[in-house]
Predict the 3D structure of the following.
Amino acid sequence: MTTGVEGFDTVIHAPHRLQICAALATVDHVEFAVLREVLGVSESVLSKQVKALDEAGYVSVTKGTRDRRVRTWASLTKEGRRAYRDHVAALRAIVG
Amino acid sequence: MESRDEFNDDAAREALASIDGVRDGVADHAAAPTGYYAYLGVGAGLLTVSPAADAWQPLIALLGAVIVISSVFWYRRSTGVWDFGNPFVREAWRYWLMIVPFVLGVLTSVITENLAVATISGVAVVLLWAIIGPQWDRDYRRALRAAS
C-alpha cells in the first residue's frame, strides 16, 4: 500500500516495521531473539509487527526446534524486499 | 496512520537514521564465533586431502563434509543470523583468497593423487582459512554496515 511519493509504503512505514524490514534486508534470515534485541522491543510487540508484515506478504516466518527451544526465523519475501527498497528510495526522495 | 503528506523531511531523516542503527546492530550479531574459521578450515583441509587418500578417501571426505555442514549450524546458532552474501563485490576479495586456493588444492590432489602433496595443500588451506577467515569476516560486516 502506497501513498503520496512513489514507493512510499504505509505497511512498512510504521517505525518498528521499518526497522524489522531493515534488519531482514541486511542479511537473508534473522532469528526473532536477534530482532528483539536489535529493535529493543518485547516478544509481543515484535510478533504483532511481524504478523502485519507477514499478512502483507512481505515477510516469511519459519520455526525450528533446537536444544528443546523453538527458534523462530524471519526473512523478507521477494515482494517485501522490493517494497522495502522502494520505501527507502521514497524516504530519500522526501529528504531530497 | 500517518500519510506521506503528514510526513516531513525531519521524520524521513529520522527513519533513515533508524535504518542505519538497525543495520549496525545486525552486523554486530553477524560476527562469527571465535575459532569458527579454523574449524571450517579443518573441514576444507580434509576435503582437500581426501581425493589422494586412497582407501581412507570416503571417510576423510565424509568427515570434512560433516565439519563444513555443522559449521553452518554453529554459525546460525551462535549469531542468530544467516546470509548467503554476495561474493561478487569488491569487499569480498578475501573470500576469494580462501576459495581459490581451496579449489586449486582439491584439483592438485585429484590430479597428482599424491598424499604428501595433498597433505601440504590441506594444511595450507587450514592455515589460510584460519588466518584470512576472521579478516574476511570483518570485511563482510563492514559491507553490511555500508549497504544501502
